[in-house]
Amino acid sequence: MIVGRLEHPFFGRRLTGAAFFSLVMLSLLVLRLWYLQAVQGTHFRDLSENNRIRSIRTVAARGSVYDREGRVLVGNRPAFQVAIVPEDTPSVKDAIALIAQVTGRSVEELTKNFETQRSRYHFEPKVIISDASREELAKVKVNSFRLPGVIVEVVPTRDYPFRNAASQLVGYSREISKSQLDKLGKDGYKRGDMLGQTGLEGTWEPQLRGKSGFRQVEVDAMGHRIGDRTAGGELPGLPGKDLHLTLDLDLQRAAEEGLGAFRGAVVALDPNNGDVLALVSTPTYDANVFSGQVSSEAWRGLIDDANDPLQNRALSMVYPPGSTFKLVTSLAALAEGKATEHTELNCPGYYKFGNRRYHCHKRSGHGGVSLRRALLVSCNAFYFQLGQQLGIQVMERYGKMLGLGAQSGIELPGEVPGIMPSEDWKKKQYKERWYPGDTLPVSIGQGYVVVTPIQMAVLAATLANDGIVYKPRLVQRVVDRLTGEQQEIPPTVVRKLDIKPEVFALVRSIAAGVVSDPHGTGKASKLPGISVGGKTGTAQVGRLGKESLGERFRDHAWFVSFAPVEKPMLAVSVIVENSGHGGQFAAPIAKKVYEAFFRKKGMLPPEVVGEGGTGPAGPTEADTSEGTQEADGVVEEEAD
Fold first, then answer.
1. Neighbour tally for 346: CB within 10 Å
2. Residue 45: enclosing H or E segment and its boundaries?
3. Hey, CA dihedral for 267, 270, 275, 277, is it positive or negative?
4. What mean pLDDT do residues 49-65 have?
5. Catalytic residues
6. Against a cut of 0.90, is the pTM above it?
7. pLDDT exceeds cutoff 90 at 79
8. d(CA 268, CA 165)
9. pLDDT computed for residue 614 by the predictor
10. Which helix (H) or strand (E) holds 538?
11. Distance between CA 95 and CA 147 in Å, rounded?
């Protein structure tokens, strides 16, 4: 009893202490609750709100591309894409499996699409189906309750309404790659942005590119979108600027139809300002392939195609100009006073130089032949002699003045300069001096000289306009669709040749005979009531006899021309690879382009069937033999 009475005060003090401690803790808890709700309530309410708000970057529409008459060559269309937000998806693997099941796509394909975007942040959508069909979209929507974190977005994607038309010219755009992003990130590019890769899409990327915006959406705990935020929840993107081209779709399609299944190129220029009215390269491809995600099979099919459909032959491939180069030799001889139109040289069927004979196509010879006649029948022996008199330095100078051996400057990527050879060039390239025999093949467009179709179009335009070399202009103006502001792209004069106009007029007159004369090699391009001047060419790919090794060793067909001769309005160059003679295969294609052009001008009736028809013409004597020079120069034969 005594002990119990002594312990009681001790336990009482402990109980009192515990009660006091509990009271203090309760007070602190109440104080903390008051602080969180009254003082910090707004802050935590914002955090709560933000926890269910997602900011989605919106893709801005790229600028459109129009031809000179306002027809859309490249536009945009709405496309649906299915994406996964990893942060809101309990199991990406299960989500992909279910999407594959309902859409009929393979798990491997969707997984690969997802994994190629690993560099994106965890909260960013990763697209697994681009440009989904409406059927696929409906199936994903129906199963949305089973697919937390899976979203469907509408984005603008590229649309090429004319499919294969001008595909190498306009090019294509694709999502920016990691290596490209490393270089361009400083310019504001982000993951998922589209970037012009080739053609106009690449060259004019700064103008065509739009500025992305953002949209805020509200999601629930499962990551499903509940709705869009209205107040301050959207910043619209700015579309890219539009390009209005000099290109005429009617001429473009006429050239494409003319080339048909052949490999080749056509370039049509306005000689009075350098406007590109047509620029064709065949074979072509459907640019819509690149609108969404390109399958590896489709991409492999394009790059492995032996016909190189992605290559723009008009400016990225070089060919010997063949007899079309005789226009350069003729101009140089007339301008330098080495010949007149009546200058006569003898053609016994060959030109003997040293102990070798360099044969003309007519083995029996043309006899005495004037410059005018020599160009008309494409006499090689005449031009061997003329070239030897001029020398390589003079021919190089005139070739370069006319645009050979240098890029034309057209606003497209991938242009190559070709080669206008010289003594210095050979010394640098082969560590050898220039031999007199090297000059002979150059005088007829063989040997070391190689050109691009666009260079030959510039050459034809320069002959047509009395010696003004224009930079080919493809874009007329850039238009801001929001403000209506227009930036005009004026024609650019590269240089004016110091050659008398009478010389150019004489060359045009002589070239007119190539088409108008019944024996002319270019008569298949003749039009009723409109004079056409030009020169055919048949450029050999390999030595004689190698044609038997296959189609790729056959001759290339050329035709370089302008019309009307009196006051040219159009200059056209055509090359048809491995087809045969220029007069038979290239000239009729140029005729189709001229018909389309002059019909629109009201200078030809709607339906025209001119002399020789519109299809490939039968070869003349000159056609069938003007290409009998070898690839390294000419057919050579030991003298008796």
1. 13
2. helix 41-51
3. negative
4. 73
5. 323
6. no
7. no
8. 15
9. 44
10. strand 533-539
11. 6
Pairing of strands 556-563, 173-175: unpaired
Q: State which amino acid sits at residue 487.
A: Q
Integer CA distances (angstroms), 22 to 17, 18, 28, in order: 9, 6, 10
- The arithmetic mean of pLDDT across residues 361-369, rounded, is 88
Which residue reads 């945009």 in tokens? 76
Q: Among 197, 397, 220, which residue's Cα sits nearest to residue 310?
A: 197
Asked if residue 110 lies in contact with residue 100, where contact means CB atoms within 8 angstroms, the answer is yes
* Number of Cβ within a 10 Å radius of residue 276: 28
Report the relative pairing of strands 242-245 and 65-66 from DSSP bridges. parallel
Residue of 163, 102, 151, 154 whose CA lies nearest to 131: 154
Amino acid at 32: R
Predicted confidence (pLDDT) per residue in 543-574, tens digit: 554 555 556 678 899 999 999 999 999 999 99
Cα–Cα distance for residue pair 571/594, rounded to 1 Å: 9
Task: Dump pLDDT digits (tens) for 161-191.
Answer: 988 889 999 998 887 878 888 888 888 887 7
- The C-alpha angle 475, 481, 485, rounded to 5 degrees, equals 70
Report the alpha-carbon distance of residue 391 to residue 400 in Å, rounded: 15
With tokens 């300069």, the residue in question is 417
Between the alpha carbon of residue 53 and those of residues 46, 146, 220, 281, the distances in Å are: 10, 21, 9, 50
Amino acid letter for position 143? N
Within 10 A of 611 (CB to CB), how many other CB atoms are there?
13
Q: Which ranges of 222-379 would DSSP assign to H, the alpha helix?
A: 249-259, 296-303, 313-316, 326-335, 371-377
Phi/psi of residue 578, nearest 5 degrees = 50, 40
Identify the CA nearest to 276 among candidates 472, 455, 471, 476. Answer: 472
3-state secondary structure 151-177: EEEEEEEEECCCCCCCHHHHCCEEECC
| Domains of the chain, each with CATH number or no CATH | 54-245 (3.90.1310.10), 252-284+312-638 (3.40.710.10)
